[in-house]
Amino acid sequence: MTEGARVRYAPSPTGDPHVGNIRTALFNWLYARHTGGQFILRIEDTDQARIAPGALESIMESLEWLGLEWDEGPGVGGPHAPYTQSERHATGIYGDAADRLTAAGNGYYCYCTPEELTEMRQEQQRLKKPPRYDGRCRELTESDHRAREGTRRVVRFAMPTDGPPIVVNDIIRGDVNFDPSVLDDFILLKSDGFPTYHLANAVDDHLMEISHVLRADEWLSSTPKHLLLYRALGYEPPHFCHLPLILGPDRARLAKRHGATSVLDYRDTGYLPEVMVNFLAL
Ligand code: GLU
Fold it and tell me: Between these two residues, 257 and 281, which has the higher pLDDT value?
């Protein structure tokens, strides 16, 4: 068993926390307490358009109601403060990481407009190819870049186009192989300069010295990208554990049509926190 695991719950404040999402928090909290480690709350709010007013408060209230106190994070601070990505963004850490990646040839500026991207996707659909960025801005020369100075641009990761499969060693699933050639040159910095989930997540897990990433299954397909980012940035990757989702009786992902999904709805209808924790844990 790992002593003193550092784990995190990293919600995006896009609405009331779903019970499935809070279950991830519970598993992280349990693992931190079990190993005598730390449970960190990090707010992933770099997708500014998706932020819902009051969501941050609901997340904190849900955790507090269930007794999942965090050792570092909003409200309590800690050695890696701030713990909210929009505030971390202001310190320049994500931009610096993107600069390091571009300087080393692992990232590049892309000036494609939304219209060009739509056209590219349509063409790929027509040819029955998987939709992905075709890398056309990878080949731009110094003078091409100079000519585009001042135009809207993003920074993309330059995916290795061949090479061995990327192996995600997952604590639950074992080795999961991903073929790098089917992965996209994903965006690192958006045109507003904010990092994407992938970049901010990898940079923060490293800087916050996270030892174990315990998150929902739906993120498994992002993990090969994160592993490549770790490698390109010279970071030691954490251990990964992708947790199965909570399903409804019909085996589909638990959703509103199955009943209440918001943790706070259960509180408001009179459920005791112990009941909720017991249900989620089992
Ligand atoms: N911000 C992501 C979410 O909303 C975090 C995923 C992860 O834990 O890496 O679930």
Answer: 281
Residue whose CA is closest, atom 3 of ligand 1? 11
Is there a catalytic annotation at residue 225? no
Could you give the CA distance from residue 202 to residue 101 in angstroms, rounded to a whole number?
A: 13
pLDDT in tens, 71-91: 999 999 999 999 999 999 999
**Structure tokens belonging to residue 173:** 């699933």
Q: Which two tokens stand for residue 56?
A: 């941050």
Long-range pairs, 112-115, Cβ under 8 A, ≥24? 112/136, 112/137, 113/152
User: Of 129, 190, 225, 256, which residue is the catalytic one?
Assistant: 256
Among protein residues, the one with the nearest Cα to ligand 1's atom 2 is: 11
Choice from 41, 219, 253 to test ligand 1 binding pocket (greatest atom count within 8 A of CB): 219
Least confidently predicted of 6-10, 14-18, 91-95? 14-18
